[in-house]
Give the backbone structure.
Amino acid sequence: MSQKIIVTGGAGYIGSHTCVALIEAGFEVVVFDNLSNSTTASLDGVARITGTRPEFINVDCADIAALRAAFAAHRDAVGVIHFAAYKAVGESVEKPLLYYRNNLGGLINVLDLMREFDVPNIVFSSSATVYGVPDTLPVTEETPLQPATSPYGATKVMGENIIRDAVRAYPQLRATLLRYFNPIGAHPSAEIGELPNGVPNNLMPYITQTAAGIRECLNIFGDDYDTPDGFCVRDYIDINDLARAHVAALRHMLNGADGVGTFNLGTGRGASVMELVNAFRTATGVDVPYKIAARRAGDVPAIWANADLAARVLNWHATVPLGETLASAWRWQKQVSGIK
Ligand code: NAD
Ligand code: WQD
């Protein structure tokens, strides 16, 4: 009998790729999603890749009554991966209460119902944003956290703390907090990928949309940072590698790891915006027109991960070369845009 995992937000970008990784690892997957930032087309893609369509329940995690009914139908689950959240940093500044209610209300409901139905394990989507502007690089899990610069970031810091307190108080719960660096790319089949709404805030979809002619020109935010080439540096992690880390985290807890584990998920290498643009050209043969624009408020000059802890404890590390990740991002964009 395969073990059942509830994946909240499983129709979204990271969630759908994680559904693939879970099914490929032999888990049964049930997706809880209210489709506020996705459609079930992603689950059709999961089905085409794996031959199995995850069961889908349209439910809002912030609605405890509806979520209780969904949990009751799946009380045999051995774990929850909690992706469901809003993630637009700028919007969170405009609508902080919406973000706190959705991201923290949803999390609290999930934890409460895990207790009620004896579902012991949770994997939580945290973010490198919790490190703010770090004093030392690369960042380890011991690097001090900085005060959040947006309500979105605050929901990740608070979410981690809520989970730590819950596990301390209810020892039947176990948790893994995964701090994602910058996930990019798509499944190599181009059946699933990232589908941003409107003008992308993030670099990777902006690059692929510019390459596809949807955007005229990439604005590179700042060329005068104190970095080797003056451009901001990030740790871009392949989405399929990131997805597999969730399986590793679950296995670790199912094998008996107690308490709360916290792990950076990155490649351990930084790349600047210009390096990414150049690597995209090398990987795809497509030139992305760009211009240098003003710095974007709130941007961290440079951050990349030390991911040794995940390698040591979860036996996970990033494997996909950057060029392959960029090629997959472009394959997905071409598929979405109907480009041959
Ligand atoms: P996404 O928007 O593609 O996926 C989130 C999914 O959750 C969507 O399908 C959405 O419909 C669903 N959802 C939102 N609120 C819900 C609710 N109340 N009830 C049920 N479903 C709800 O985003 P993603 O990029 O896949 O991000 C997944 C998680 O990872 C989020 O928690 C996000 O904050 C976190 N994260 C993302 C990144 C990134 O760069 N993409 C980086 C760090 C952390
Ligand atoms: C990457 C680099 C930009 C767009 C954000 C959130 C973080 C997490 C991931 C969810 C930066 C530059 C970007 C553009 C550019 N999200 N850039 N032109 O800022 O590292 O992180 O997404 O959890 O919380 O803050 O990612 O992709 O927006 O930017 O030059 O049009 O690309 O300045 O240096 P970021 P990003």
Summary: The chain has eleven helices and 13 strands. The chain has two domains: 4-185+236-268+309-313, 203-233+269-304+321-335. The mean pLDDT is 98. The CA atoms of residues 232 and 301 lie 5 Å apart.
